[in-house]
Design goal:
Number of domains: 2
Strand order of the largest sheet: 1-2-4-3
Helix content: 55-70%
Oligomer: single chain
Number of strands: 4
Order of helices and strands: HEEHHEHEHHH
Strand content: 5-15%
Number of helices: 7
Radius of gyration: 23 Å
């Protein structure tokens, strides 16, 4: 598996909470090859290394929202726990690797950083594209106002093109797995 593929797999575990991209303690522990209990133990032993902008505990509502998004309440990451999960920002995820002090944690932390960077680049690309599209739209509208020769239908078509491009910029919703028993498709050749 390439570094880019590893970063992409890790990026799938990054969620948006409180306006920040974070990884939950169970996902981070799995990546670092330790039990969630061990990760949280090291965090408790080193509170000075984890200020509020590095890590926070999920509220009951945030936990309920995450459970509803994953369509399961018995996820190994959340089921049967006494406390709500911890959420680590990019800096918190790196700090967790340092307090775990294992070679796997150090190695995987590089992929975690790359995943966060990859997400930032995607967002920056979308923002840059949106800015350029807005500039182009303003220029086209100014041109249309200056030149009355453009027919109303042409302006409407140009607006439809801009609207279609904006729709394409919206990230697709993740595919959802069907819930319950799903019958397999019948085979076309029965004997």
């Amino acid at each position: 598996m390439t570094e880019e593929q590893s970063a992409t797999l890790i990026a799938r575990r990054i969620v948006l909470l409180r306006g920040q991209k974070v990884m939950l303690d169970a996902d981070l522990a799995a990546l670092y090859g330790v039990e969630t209990k061990r990760l949280n133990e090291q965090v408790r032993r080193n509170p000075d290394r984890f200020p509020a902008d590095f890590m926070f505990r999920l509220s009951d509502q945030e936990l309920a929202d995450l459970r509803s998004q994953s369509a399961t309440s018995s996820s190994p990451a959340w089921g049967g726990r006494r406390y709500a999960p911890l959420a680590f920002t990019e800096h918190g995820a790196l700090m967790a690797a340092t307090v775990l002090n294992s070679s796997r944690a150090v190695e995987v932390s590089l992929y975690v950083v790359r995943a966060f960077v990859q997400l930032r680049e995607v967002l920056a690309t979308h923002k840059d594209l949106a800015r350029k599209l807005a500039q182009l739209e303003r220029a086209t509208q100014a041109l249309a106002l200056k030149q009355d020769q453009l027919a109303a239908s042409t302006r409407a078509q140009i607006k439809q093109v801009f609207d279609a491009i904006r729709e394409l910029m919206v990230p697709p919703e993740p595919k959802k797995r069907p819930i319950g028993f799903v019958e397999p498709e019948e085979r076309s050749t029965k004997k």
